[in-house]
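Progress note, sequence design subtask.
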């Protein structure tokens, strides 16, 4: 590949990490827009367009189909990291993407059968999504020199880019071609992603056919003995008795609860409470994601600058938690005081995810701090518990928003705000950025012949 001789191979891997999170959140976020075009009106004054057949599903089943993906996420997140470390992140990312693309396409013929079949297919999509973030963390741990892990972690903000583009583009596709094409179009993006995986990614730098020898030596020398190719079982007992990791699990629960609430609840809130049409709801719902993406890269630059100037890593992690969790939580609590102001509601949604862009410097990068060898496993475990927020949130919305009033939704957002603040305080008190002793891979002793 002479045409890219002057571009480091790890730059292409970082690009694919960004693209991987883009694809992951594209599948997470598009359904919350598509479902609005698939079901009957929930309020007497709700405007409906002709975007294809609509189904008379109950409000409860609508929320269940939204939360189905999160059930899948939680089900497979726990072993996902170990799967990535044993099979290799390349295979996990490739084949999980193919399965979730096929499952999404099958939702179109499944919808007339009933919401239960849609629930099952979205559950399968969730299972595949659960495998991907641990695989990406595993890939970063193997490719990123320690001095560049902040930049690699910023590439995980491709999730915001995925949500930002998917919501408005899905709405335009739905209005132009019908809601069924919002599912079919996902397959095209997955095909491009798989092509990029074949060209630019390998499980380890040494396995990549086009890597320059100097770059390979630089990566391996920088990583030292922190990264090992030995395939061993993760040290689960040491992990679950590690106070810094338990603090990270709590922080990730708070982070994902609010993030999933934004993905699934914002389009409903904008359409059913603020009475925006489908396209306007999708575009406004994308604004917070765009702000999160921009702020994520800004915070990443500031983080690297602080580290270069000698600020201890742990203070950077905990300092940015003031933004990613505390400031985000305060933004959500402010919903209790805005009355019926739709403008203030939009400002607070944008501020919430803008502050949360700092999560790239807290919960997203912290697994690499604690254990580069088992970063995929750590991410899978913390997503297992964090994913609970994905189905707890829709249940809370279902119970509290029967009439879809601003006051009811203010309570929903305030609950999310309190979860953010409490989880952030826990991480600031008990979290760590130090390499843990259990990062070292120890081979199991060979059996003694009898």
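Output:
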């Amino acid at each position: 590949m002479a045409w890219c001789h002057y571009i480091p191979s790890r730059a292409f891997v970082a690009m694919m990490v960004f693209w991987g999170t883009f694809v992951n959140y594209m599948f997470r976020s598009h359904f919350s827009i598509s479902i609005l075009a698939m079901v009957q009106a929930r309020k007497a004054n709700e405007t409906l367009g002709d975007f294809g057949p609509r189904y008379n599903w109950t409000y409860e089943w609508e929320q269940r189909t939204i939360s189905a993906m999160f059930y899948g996420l939680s089900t497979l997140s726990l072993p996902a990291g170990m799967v990535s470390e044993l099979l290799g992140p390349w295979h996990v990312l490739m084949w999980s993407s193919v399965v979730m693309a096929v499952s999404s396409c099958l939702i179109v013929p499944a919808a007339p059968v009933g919401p239960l079949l849609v629930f099952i297919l979205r559950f399968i999509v969730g299972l595949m999504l659960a495998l991907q973030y641990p695989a990406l963390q595993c890939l970063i741990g193997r490719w990123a020199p320690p001095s560049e892990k902040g930049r690699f972690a910023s590439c995980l903000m491709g999730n915001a880019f995925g949500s930002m583009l998917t919501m408005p583009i899905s709405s335009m596709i739905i209005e132009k071609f019908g809601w069924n094409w919002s599912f079919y179009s996902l397959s095209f993006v997955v095909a491009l992603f798989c092509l990029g995986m074949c060209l630019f990614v390998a499980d380890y730098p040494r396995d990549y056919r086009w890597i320059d020898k100097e770059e390979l030596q630089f990566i391996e020398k920088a990583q030292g003995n922190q990264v090992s190719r030995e395939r061993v079982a993760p040290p689960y007992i040491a992990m679950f008795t590690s106070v810094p990791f338990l603090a990270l699990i709590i922080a990730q629960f708070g982070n994902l609860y609010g993030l999933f609430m934004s993905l699934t609840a914002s389009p409903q809130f904008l359409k059913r409470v603020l009475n925006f049409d489908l396209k306007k709801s999708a575009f406004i719902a994308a604004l917070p994601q765009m702000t999160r993406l921009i702020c994520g890269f800004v915070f990443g630059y500031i983080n690297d600058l602080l580290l270069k100037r000698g600020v201890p890593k742990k203070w950077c992690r905990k300092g940015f938690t003031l933004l990613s969790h505390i400031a985000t939580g305060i933004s959500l609590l402010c919903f209790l005081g805005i009355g019926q102001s739709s403008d203030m509601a939009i400002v607070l949604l944008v501020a919430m995810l803008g502050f949360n862009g700092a999560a790239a410097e807290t919960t997203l990068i912290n697994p690499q701090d604690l254990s580069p060898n088992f970063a995929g496993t750590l991410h899978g475990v913390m997503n297992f518990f964090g994913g609970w927020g994905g189905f707890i949130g829709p249940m809370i919305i279902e119970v509290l928003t029967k009439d879809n009033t601003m006051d009811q939704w203010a309570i929903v957002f305030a609950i999310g705000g309190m979860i953010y603040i409490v989880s952030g305080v826990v991480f600031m008190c008990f979290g760590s950025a130090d390499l843990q002793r259990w990062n070292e891979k120890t081979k199991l002793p060979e059996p003694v012949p009898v």
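The chain has one domain: 2-436. Work on this subtask will continue into the next period as scheduled.
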